[in-house]
Amino acid sequence: MPSQVRVIVRTKPTDNPSTAFRALSDNVVSITRPVAPRPGVASGDQPVAKEETLSFPVAAVLNNASQEAVYTTAASPMVESFLQGYNCTLMCFGQSGSGKTHTLFGGDAYPLRGCVPRALEVLFDVIRTSTERRYTVKITFVEVYGEQLFDLLGKNKSASAFSTNPKNANASRKNAHGNTPNDCGNKATVTIDGSGNAVLRGVEERLCATEAEALGTVFEGLQRRLSSPSYLNPNSSRSHAVLTLYLVSTSLLDSDALTHHSRFNFVDFAGSERATVDDGKQDVQMINRSIVMLEQVVLAMASSHPRHVPYRQSKLTMLLKNSLSGECFITLIATLWPQHEYLDATLSTLNFAKRMMRVESKPTQNTSMDTEAQVRMLQKQVNSLKSELRMQDQLAGRVAVPTAPLESD
């Protein structure tokens, strides 16, 4: 059955919350704003200024919530589906500094772990304790900077792979260690094949046998991810990032020949900002342009009149094609910073979330037949039938007639 995108609002704690923003309940937030003057009417003829209240129903409102509460509400149900062979996508969208990266990856202290490390803990707990299935886990981690893709887990780093806009040296574009683009990952590509699926090439699929290996892989990618100071965030991510877990599980039971294949995408969107008040103008313009293109794709998907969805117009939307149009469960965490000066950004985030709620997907369990397990299962059935026939012969007093292969004269 079709499944709508699940939207969860998370608010960032602030000492100066806007009175225009309110959490009306556990699943409704609202913004009150002045009504714009009517065009073409003289100011003296305008009625007394009025206000309008915009309400946004969502799946859940997490106001000053802990990292554990966010994981339990947003990610935990998807991890269960992921283990059952369903593709899942968890996205964080919001203005710069609103807590997107913190929500997904967390902070230094153990209680501040984000959705990704908590999901890995649950996943490998299941793998360690399972007596019925065998699991294989792989990870990819890519970032989208402008119209270029980079593999954050790549080993070989080529300077030619990091050419940026020649009009902008991007001297301030660095990762967590202060490294420039040449140090931060291999160039990757994404294309759409004849079946309409997005295909990612030039990336390393890192095999992880333990939770420690998986966490180390994630940390490695985060250290290579590019960031620079902005007026809202001293360590602002200047790229969109997509971390993907690939899971294959095969049954250890002869009675089950199904293999499950599933993919879990964690998407950390870069935050939009006003270029007029930010030193990194080129970065901000590229981020805003890619978000506009993403919104165009969402608008086309949510339209009641089916039309062409412009996935190919940007690398970001091409990369997310399987996540948005595929057969998967989708949850969007809209991160808000409800201070008065950021009210426009808050409203923009909620409008995007509202459009996402109209997007439908069709989650489907991804299974295939394990040939060896199927042979074992059929052989077991044959042996069982033979035993049953021998028992019936004995009860009926019949003597089995020995047979031998025919020989030619």
Automatic annotation (TrEMBL):
<dbReference type="GO" id="GO:0005874">
    <property type="term" value="C:microtubule"/>
</dbReference>
<keyword id="KW-0505">Motor protein</keyword>
<comment type="similarity">
    <text>Belongs to the TRAFAC class myosin-kinesin ATPase superfamily. Kinesin family.</text>
</comment>
<dbReference type="InterPro" id="IPR036961">
    <property type="entry name" value="Kinesin_motor_dom_sf"/>
</dbReference>
<keyword id="KW-0067">ATP-binding</keyword>
<dbReference type="InterPro" id="IPR027417">
    <property type="entry name" value="P-loop_NTPase"/>
</dbReference>
<dbReference type="GO" id="GO:0008017">
    <property type="term" value="F:microtubule binding"/>
</dbReference>
<dbReference type="GO" id="GO:0005524">
    <property type="term" value="F:ATP binding"/>
</dbReference>
<dbReference type="InterPro" id="IPR027640">
    <property type="entry name" value="Kinesin-like_fam"/>
</dbReference>
<feature type="domain" description="Kinesin motor">
    <location>
        <begin position="4"/>
        <end position="359"/>
    </location>
</feature>
<dbReference type="Pfam" id="PF00225">
    <property type="entry name" value="Kinesin"/>
</dbReference>
<dbReference type="InterPro" id="IPR001752">
    <property type="entry name" value="Kinesin_motor_dom"/>
</dbReference>
<feature type="binding site">
    <location>
        <begin position="94"/>
        <end position="101"/>
    </location>
    <ligand>
        <name>ATP</name>
    </ligand>
</feature>
<dbReference type="GO" id="GO:0007018">
    <property type="term" value="P:microtubule-based movement"/>
</dbReference>
<keyword id="KW-0175">Coiled coil</keyword>
<dbReference type="GO" id="GO:0003777">
    <property type="term" value="F:microtubule motor activity"/>
</dbReference>
<protein>
    <submittedName>
        <fullName>Putative kinesin</fullName>
    </submittedName>
</protein>
<dbReference type="GO" id="GO:0005871">
    <property type="term" value="C:kinesin complex"/>
</dbReference>
<feature type="region of interest" description="Disordered">
    <location>
        <begin position="163"/>
        <end position="183"/>
    </location>
</feature>
<feature type="coiled-coil region">
    <location>
        <begin position="368"/>
        <end position="395"/>
    </location>
</feature>
<keyword id="KW-0547">Nucleotide-binding</keyword>
<dbReference type="GO" id="GO:0016887">
    <property type="term" value="F:ATP hydrolysis activity"/>
</dbReference>
